[in-house]
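re: ur question from the group chat, yeah i did fold both. here u go
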Amino acid sequence: MKYLWMSTSKNITTGYGIVTKNVTERLIKKGCDLWVLGLQTIGIQKEERLLPVLNDVFGSDALQYYIQSLGIDALITVLDNWVQSYAYIPNLLKQLKCKHIAHVTANSAPLGSQLIDKLKDADYYIAPSRYVEELLLEVFPREKIKYIPHGVDCKIFKPYSQEEKLKCKEEIGYTNKFVFLGVGTNKGIQKNWPGLFYAYKIFLMNNPEAKKDTILHCHTDMHSGDGYDLELLAKRYGIAENVFYVDVKLNSGTSPEKMARLYNLADCFVSASMGESFGLPLLESMACGVPVIFPNHSTGPQLVGEPKTGLLAELMKMKNGQEFGLTSPLVSDKFWMDPVCMAECMEKIYKDKKLREKFSKNAVKFAKEFDWEKKVIPMWIDFFKELEEQKEPVNYQEKKLGI
């Protein structure tokens, strides 16, 4: 079978781009008949099987042409399926009799009605986490759902020696500092940077000595027009002297090797996200032996709670005990972590060296179970084999077209 992978271009280091690069390059090397339509890829490409977009950045004028000219049997979409600009895809695939394998991003519960509507005609659903798998099982048949998680390159993301870790801190000016690290985009409210900043404010109030000993390093776009002015927010919360950052624009990217050095200078990875379909920075930091703090929702229990790789911050609750959250435009609920609880988690990690060492050891062991080459790619290959076995042979006399 011939496959077309449609997603963020592989050279963009956001989540979709990282997944696209690590999965498609490995599958092509292993002989899979796979082409890639990178939605930010413009013009003639030097690499084989990397297709450019045409006039529409969402691929509406390119997808039909590529499916027909290349004889594509199945389209794999790894994108925000609910976005209205992708609404053309289901009907087009029906018209072309091309299978649809939909990688599902769902970071709140239940699955939103708009998302269900866009996905209802897909042939298969890829769940990148057990959390997403559970959401899909509430709506779609089990036989159509395949759990294939995201992964990490354990040859790049790994713990450094203590000497090398100290060198990483020296390079950025963090010698003798305890580093809390946050990694994520600053777009909309999803990553909840204000919640993280407020939790860090509480932590510093409860631990005055930490004002000299700790910093919060933010690997993000600090002045995003689509998110928050984080520099201004830090000043408002009175934590500006302890918040540091290297300003990162959404599509400029940071190489995996540089990210590995960043993780290795950190003493604790912390996120206040309102929900994740997986959480690549979580896994990458754990592969480097960094303890993590994450809210107790979405993928938190799978990646942090069960393997004991860090601490889970409980969610805010109302007087009646019900968890406090908000309903997103997808008619799906996002929940807010309790900043007081997160501050307490930060204090525990900061003060307890033995606890950090325990979490670090568990984190490295756990992350190896998500190695791209050894664990994740074999799952994709097994899935492709299942599809190959289901494809009917072409037989014109019996009017079988192999679809």
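okk and heres the other one u asked abt
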Amino acid sequence: MSAAGIIDCHVHPTLRVGEPPAACAEELLPFADRMGIELMGVSLGPIFFHQPTREQVEADNCFNAGLIACHPDRFFGYANLNPNDLRHSLAEIERRIVDGPFVGIKLWVALCCDHPNVDAICERAAELGAPILQHTFYRAGGNLPGESNPEDMARLAARHRGVTFIAAHAGLNWGMGVRAVADQPNVLVDTCGFDPEAGFTEMAVAWLGAERVVYGSDGAGRSFASQLAKVHGADITPEARALILHANMRRVLGR
């Protein structure tokens, strides 16, 4: 694909448990090709565990490492961590990022990102230049135990200016989420995790600048196309669209 191919910063493998990484690639790549997606950032696994054990964390990371090994030109990885187990989390960073092939960190709902345990993870991420993709929700009816919202993300980012954070889903309630992280220049938002609603991309660009918005699909839980519609259908400049679809993530990934 061309240098202007789309980068999807937020994808999950969703095949049945027990199927190999190659089968996952066989399922995902034709859809990605049809939508012009060159690179996909993968994390977690076929089953999402709120409090994953060491074995579950390692199984997810091994699966995604296998996916990257099958197609290193099409996938990059975020190391799945459970910050409640800080010793293991730091060991997984060494195993998956320092020793390869992953380039970043994924934190889901095991522990609120404002917790002190996450500071040690951020310190190592800063040393390695590894971005952190952090799930953020304002969930209707209240967040899950340990689930982070964009205000938690903003407090963490203020303590770790040397880390690039991606506030996944822009908080779900994106009007609140964009405002919550606006004052933290090291926080980007991605486009995924909610319906293709009009106005999100325009607001994110107006409040954050196009340099702080990146395309993510949350595939295969969401389709590539429905999430691309938020970018292609937005009233923004062609230059802003190019930043969101590929140039910003190339900068984050050092490509």
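fwiw on the second one: The domain at 6-253 is CATH 3.20.20.140 (TIM Barrel). Residues 127 and 162 are 8 Å apart (CA to CA). idk if thats what u expected
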